[in-house]
Design brief:
Strand content: 15-25%
Helix content: 40-55%
Largest sheet: 3 strands, antiparallel
Number of helices: 4
Shape: globular
Length: 109
């Protein structure tokens, strides 16, 4: 159990770092022999839709005020602040996260 939590925390930290690095790039990156315009999509829409598991303390969970909070949320809020966009917290079914991401329903997980 503790190993699983540590693994998810490490994954979240690495993902946040990758997102921050991507946010600092001036142009798109190559993906699938095309151009990845996901950062530009976020900037153009003025919001970043974060897909999350709202039941996984301390990464993301619903507090006693029915607000989604946690480490992932804190990192995402800082990223959004630096990008100048709004954070949209979107609880998702974790089993279909890849489909949500590939389908454009969320911008990151």
């Amino acid at each position: 159990m503790k190993r699983s939590i540590l693994k998810r925390m490490l994954t979240a930290v690495m993902a946040a770092g990758m997102l921050l690095c991507g946010a600092g790039c001036s142009g798109g990156s190559s993906a699938d022999n095309g151009t990845d315009n996901s950062l530009q999509k976020v900037k153009d829409s003025g919001k970043l839709v974060l897909g999350l598991d709202a039941t996984f303390k301390p990464m993301g969970y619903t507090n006693e005020k029915d607000e989604i909070v946690g480490f992932d949320i804190d990192v995402a809020e800082e990223v959004c602040k630096r990008l100048g966009v709004e954070l949209v917290k979107q609880p998702i079914n974790w089993n279909t996260k890849e489909e949500d991401l590939d389908g454009g329903r969320i911008d990151c997980i």
